Amino acid sequence: MAETVQASQQDGHFNESIVNEEILEDMKKNRIDHMKYLPDMEQLEESDVMDQVISAMNAYDYDKYTEADVRRALAHDNRTPEDFKALLSPAALPLLEEIAQAARIETRKHFGNSICMFTPIYIANYCENYCIYCGFNCHNKIRRAQLNADEIEKEMAAIAETGLQEILILTGESKTKSNVEYIGKACEIARKYFKVVGLEVYPMNSDEYAYLHKCGADYVTVFQETYNSDKYETLHLAGHKRIFPYRLNTQERALKGGMRGVGFAALLGLDDFRKDAFATGYHAYLLQRKYPHAEIAFSCPRLRPIINNDRINPKDVHEPQLLQVVCAYRLFMPFASITVSTRECARVRDNLVNIAATKISAGVSTGIGSHVEDIEPNRGRVMPKISIIIPAYNVGKYIEECLESARNQTLKDIEIVVVNDGSTDNTGDVIAQEASKDSRIHVVTNHPNMGTHRTRMAGAEAATGEYSFFLDGDDALKPDMCEQLVQELSLHPADVLHFGITVVGANELLDSEREAFEANNNASTQDAVGDDIIRDIFDESRGYKVDWRVTQRLYKTSVLKQAFAAMTKERLGRSQDGYECFVVSAFAKTYHSCKHCRGYIYYYGRGISGTSTISAEKYAQYCHHFKADFDAAYDFADTQHSEMLRACAQGFQRKATEILSNDWKIRVPENEKLSAAQSMSDVFGPAIAGREIYRFVRDDAYEKLSGKTALLPNDRLNNWFGIANSFEVLPSHEDTDSLRFHEMKRIATSHMLDLVTQSEQAEQIERYNNQRVRLFVTTHKNVNRFESDIMQPVQVGLHEGSYRFPWAFHDDEGENISDRNPRYCELTTQYWAWKNVDADYYGFCHYRRYFDFSETVHEENAFGEIMDDYIDARAAKEYGLDDKNIEQIVRQYDVITTPFGDLTKIIDKHGTPRALWEAAPLLHDDDLLRCYRILCKMYPDYKEDADAFFKGNKACFCNMFIMKKEIFFDYCSWMFPILEEFDKNTNYSAYSKEALRTPGHLSERLLNIYLMHHKRIGSNWKFKELQCVHFTNPEPAEELKPLDVFDKPIVPVVFAADDNYVPQLTTTVYSAMKNADPTYFYDVVVLQRNIAWDKQERLRDFFKQFPNMSLRFTNVERELSGYDLSTNNAHISIETYYRFLIQKLLPFYDKVLYLDSDIVINGDISKLYNTDLQGKLLGAIRDIDFLANLNVKHGKRMGYAKNVLKMKNPYDYFQAGVLVLNTKAMRERYTIKQWLTYASNPAFIYNDQDVLNAHCEGEVLYLPWEWNVVHDCGGRVGNLFVQAPHDIYDAYMKSRNNPQIIHYAGFQKPWTDPDCDFASIYWRYARETPFYERLLKRVVKATAPSKPVVESVKPPRAIGEDNAIRRIIDPIMPIGSRRRAVAKAIGRAVRGRE
Question: Which residues contact 29 (CB under 8 A, 6 or more apart)?
Answer without folding.
Answer: none
